[in-house]
Amino acid sequence: MNTPICDFVRNYATSSPLRLHMPGHKGVEYLGCEGLDITEISGADSLFQASGIIAESEKNAGSIFGADTFYSTEGSSLSIRAMLHLAALWAKEKDKTPLIAAGRNAHKAFLSAAALIDFDILWLSEQSDCSYLSCPISAEYIETVLKQSSPAAVYITSPDYLGNTADISALAKVCHKYDTLLLVDNAHGAYLKFFGKHPIELGADMCCDSAHKTLPVLTGGGYLHISRELPDFFRNNAKNALALYGSTSPSYLILQSLDMANKVMAGGYAEKIKAFAQGVDTLKQKLASCGYTLSNDEPLKITILAKKYGYSGTLLAEKLEKSNIHCEFADPDFIVFMLTPHIGIEGLDRLSQALTAIPKADELCSSPPVFSQGEQKMSVRSALFSPCETIPTGRAVGKVLASPSVGCPPAVPIAVCGELITQQAAEAFAYYGIEQVTVVK
User: Fold this and answer.
1) Same domain, 333 and 239
2) What pLDDT score does 129 carry?
3) Beta-bridge mates of residue 392
4) CATH number (domain holding residue 105)
5) What's the CA gap between 261 and 26, in Å, rounded?
């Protein structure tokens, strides 16, 4: 597969140009990558009006994913806003209310989209044991919801941060039965294409992928995928939607990385990643035999229920850091490892040795706070744009949350903007180390 963006930039960089354009480093190396860092000069195309090398590269990516694929140099956050914008536009085109039914464990980019686009949200939370990170949603539950309301789209996160995946095929069938779009935050699952489990091939209408999370792509590289089964309305408006929320200065380093990833993925990557997944599965079995409890069904993610092994997730992370091993995420209950073939079998062995060297201790019986959804007192947009103040979490009960009080990772809000903060929510904030929250005055 060709690499039109990479080829253009390298040819330009080696031609000894006099760079009388941005960026200001003019190709002089400080980090080592400056020579390949350019802007939208003649021949370089333009991300949001792509008709040349970027359009050609995006077409290459689409041929891999079986979709109309558009690049983001701002990760899945930009793609999330764009696909929700498209869903809201389509609702108005169909004279429907731009209501989005969304899994409660949505990334905070979903909330910023709600504030910017000003759509209404119907929060989905099927099970009483939902956590802020996991929110299983079945097709049967969605059918019940769609019989009672008419959202423009159903929005789910799959895989979630802990590596749990939804039955997207079943969800898609139900959504389409009720003429409802299915949108999937697949930020953690771009690589699932090589296992026949990518949302687009399972029937989703649109999804985002953070290419940089699980593929050999620089941080910030992402995709917006639009099903080829959708009307032309979506692909015709995709670039405008991305441009509305994206920077006018996209990184050409990231674009080159996305471009080169096409060549990598088309060149035997499927076999490589499947072989590596077998090694991951072997490691999972070994960890289970040593007493670890694992919880997820994602092929290249390992999620350990740390307390069952006698430690908090954060303590396990600290122990591993002494061996210079760094996890993706740890909290009081879980530790999460994101794996790709680029760590090799040697990396799996190193992780195995470090984890099995930690002695099993008595199980910790403390449980995380029970998930509680407070009453929605105002819209997300109204809350985010209201006068606000930051107060200690202990004084927040009964107040209305103004902005999400959660960092990244995991960037999943415990309470959402406009929601009344309950005692349970305050306890959850404290449990996860959030000492202050921003509330509406």
Assistant:
1) no
2) 59
3) 436
4) 3.40.640.10
5) 26
Does residue 40 contact residue 46 with C-beta atoms inside 8 Å?
A: yes
Residue 63 located in a structural domain: yes
Q: Are residues 288 and 262 in the same domain?
A: no
Smallest CA-to-CA distance from 253 within 55, 19, 73, 59 is with 73
Mapped onto helix, strand or coil, the DSSP state of residue 129 is: coil
DSSP 191: G
Phi, psi of 328, deg, nearest 5: -75, -40
Q: What percent of the chain has pLDDT over 90?
A: 88
Burial of 88 per CB tally in 10 Å (0-12, 13-18, 19+): buried
pTM of the model: 0.95
Separation between Cα atoms, residue 74 and residue 221, nearest integer Å: 6
Tens of pLDDT along 241-292? 999 999 999 999 999 999 999 999 999 999 999 999 999 999 999 999 999 9
Of 441, 415, 413, residue with least CA distance to 426: 415
> What is the domain range of residue 297?
271-356
Omega within 30 of 0 (cis) for the link into 23: yes
Same domain as 137, residue 12: yes
Claim to verify: residue 76 and residue 196 sit in the same structural domain: yes
- Read off the DSSP letter of residue 422: P
Residue 337 backbone dihedrals phi, psi, to 5 degrees: -120, 125
Is residue 106, in this structure, part of any structural domain at all?
yes
Is residue 96 located within the same domain as residue 41? yes
Beta-carbon neighbour count of residue 435 at 10 Å? 10
Both 256 and 302 in a single domain? no
380 with 121: CB under 8 angstroms? yes
Phi-psi region of 138 (alpha: psi -120 to 50; beta: other; left: phi over 0): beta
Same domain? 227 vs 287: no
Residue 407 in any domain: the answer is: yes
Amino acid 95 reads D
Let me know if residue 367 belongs to a domain. no
Closest CA relative to residue 217, chosen from 176, 264, 178, 183? 264
